[in-house]
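ugh finaly. both done.
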Amino acid sequence: MIRILGRIRSINVRKVLWTADELGLVYTHEAWGEGGLRLDSESFTKLNPNRLVPVLVDGDFVLWESHAICRHLVRQYDAGVLNNDNLRAAAWVDQWLDWQQSTLNPAWRDAFLGLVRQHPAHRSPALIHASVQLWSETMQILEQTLSDGRRFLVGDRFSIADISVGLSIHRWLQTPIPREPLPFVLAYYEALKRRQKARPYLCVELA
């Protein structure tokens, strides 16, 4: 039995849950990080010494890091739904996954944590202003990419890159910041929302 551990408010947990749903997997979801399911408990620390979610438990196999889990699920269980055996296309999927994690994530950090999560360490107006500017500049990269009319990030085929970046757009839209109009990003996001498996994850309140 596949177990997916982590509270649904976590964007990284939603990446894994959405991927599992697109693949039609049967799994149990345990909301670690909420209520009495503490990340600093001995039982959870044995699964992930970083004390972070998500964690995948598949029989005796344990894996953490959201993109590693998504890649594993596609490689292990995909029957042609998300997998792409074209090496260049697969590399582009990895490119966008890495971009989301290494470029887009740091851009929103202070703005999101300060304005949505109300974290004291990120409430400085200067930090928030700089974060909003960097976030806006980074989103322009996505707008330029989508302006060629492609349906998804890697051509006409939906992939886990769209899951990761789609959830990031959701975060951008839900954070109370000034936003420049990005029509191609918004059209892409609305198309993702029409996917049946996407709806539970693109309608989550962030606060």
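ok and the 2nd:
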Amino acid sequence: MAPVKVFGPAMSTNVARVLVCLEEVGAEYEVVDIDFKAMEHKSPEHLVRNPFGQIPAFQDGDLLLFESRAIAKYVLRKYKTDEVDLLREGNLKEAAMVDVWTEVDAHTYNPALSPIVYECLINPLMRGLPTNQTVVDESLEKLKKVLEVYEARLSQHKYLAGDFVSFADLNHFPYTFYFMATPHAALFDSYPHVKAWWESLMARPAIKKLAAQMVPKKP
């Protein structure tokens, strides 16, 4: 059976979301790089894979998918085993909690944290733009409020959806990894349960492997 293909560089947070799930389930896969400088993401060939001209795109035989969370869920369903069940769809309540914290990541956690990553890493290192400290300061205040909720949750459970690692936790990996390369990483020290949760994720072999491919240089 041919390996599935993921189109886009591992350093992309959305691509990394898919790759970490593939690693967790032990699936065979191929990463096909997309050259943004050459505008390959807008090429007719890539637009067949992703009509919005974005990454990632995903191919499994004649099936083409886009949108990283949808791809990741497909992967976790296809390769689910009794030992690796990161969506917990066999248990209605557990699956619901996975969904809840996946939504929190997308709509509350990432919107607070990702501007800090952009201003401290992506803009200065990749775009040659200065850091907008006002955006950073405002986002840090938002993130502190979010982390207070996470601290309360993780004081009761080892992981976000319960006492089991799930897709909800893995979703947090890409942007949090880059946040930890900013000058504001020490913020997590103020939230000991959040810090312990993050350290437990970083100890996972799949995440260690992906992290080695994503290492950014500190500004």
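summary for the 2nd one i guess: The mean pLDDT is 94.
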